[in-house]
Amino acid sequence: MPSPPHSQLRYSRRGLLGGGLALLTTLCIGGWPGTAAGSFRPDQLRLVMRTRYGDSGSTILEEWFTLLERLASQPLRTQLRDTNDFFNRRIRWLDDIDIWGQEDYWATPLETMGKAQGDCEDFSIAKYITLTHLGVPTRQLRMIYVRARIGRRRVTQAHMVVGYYETPTSEPLVLDNLLTTITPAAQRVDLDPVFSFNSDGLWAAGSTRSTANPVQRLSRWSSALTRMQEQGFL
Predict the structure, then answer these.
(1) Rounded to the nearest 10 degrees, what angle do helices 219-231 and 42-71 cross at?
(2) 111 vs 121: CA distance, rounded Å
(3) pLDDT at res. 210
(4) Alpha-carbon torsion 31, 185, 189, 180, what sign?
(5) Is 143 within 8 Å of 32 (Cβ atoms)?
């Protein structure tokens, strides 16, 4: 995934079903975590983090717990903004091959915070999980796979963001590691959506009807979900 520039990006709302399915096949991407089942176990998270990543990882995890506590009673806009800022400021963008030795690995929030590194999927997963733990309904959140035109040469690369939808047909607000601010989708002028998904469904760009079960269709989601359950998120 691309390293973050500081320029505005474009978001086109046209449907790209054919390209989306091709990209899905090419990337073999995973599904998207939710918090519907299981239990949140902070002590288990602390134990796993300290065992795997030591003091540095534990420090970020405790900051994350503090974030959850502080934002629990805050307005939604504050929850979105501060969640976006938390990870954008603490996590260094890096390719999966450099972090994990794999071309495409979807890290859990614990793994991302433990390494303090991640690519666009890792940023998005961590933000999504944080918002669901804050009580934002999963129906209002989606992972959005896009084609991003990056830099002066407008090189097109696959990228991922989180979208918040006030209603199913609303223009989403985009949480991204490419920009420091949350913007309406119409202002992201060089992002083209391919497909989106959450813990409940998968949508072609521009569609209001889910086309598949993300857990069954998206292989890496199952792996990420299993690891999150083992670590104590779910």
Answers:
(1) 100
(2) 12
(3) 60
(4) negative
(5) yes
3-state secondary structure the chain: CCCCCCCCCEECCCCCHHHHHHHHHHHCCCCCCCCCCCCCCHHHHHHHHHHHHHHHHHHHHHHHHHHHHHHCCCCHHHHHHHHHHHHHHHCEECCHHHHCCCCCCCCCHHHHHHHCEECHHHHHHHHHHHHHHCCCCHHHEEEEEEEEEECCCCEEEEEEEEEECCCCCCCCEEECCCCCCCEEHHHCCEEEEEEEECCCCEEECCCCCCCECHHHHCHHHHHHHHHHHHHCCC
Mean pLDDT by 10 residues, the chain (234 residues): 40 34 36 50 98 98 98 97 98 96 95 97 96 96 90 84 92 94 92 86 70 58 88 94
Angstrom distances, CA of residue 36 to CA of 33, 93, 227: 9, 29, 15
Whole-prediction pTM = 0.82
Residues 232 and 40 sit within 8 Å (Cβ to Cβ): yes
Cα–Cα distances (Å) from 192 to 30, 131, 154, 172, in that order, read 20, 24, 13, 13
Question: Which tokens belong to 138?
Answer: 């999963």
pLDDT for the residue 159: 94
Q: Residue 80 is which amino acid?
A: L
Work out whether strand 190-197 and strand 10-11 pair parallel, antiparallel, or are unpaired: parallel
How do beta strands 173-175 and 155-164 pair? antiparallel
Residue 8 phi/psi, 5-degree rounding, is: -70, 150
SS3 per residue for 147-180: EEEECCCCEEEEEEEEEECCCCCCCCEEECCCCC
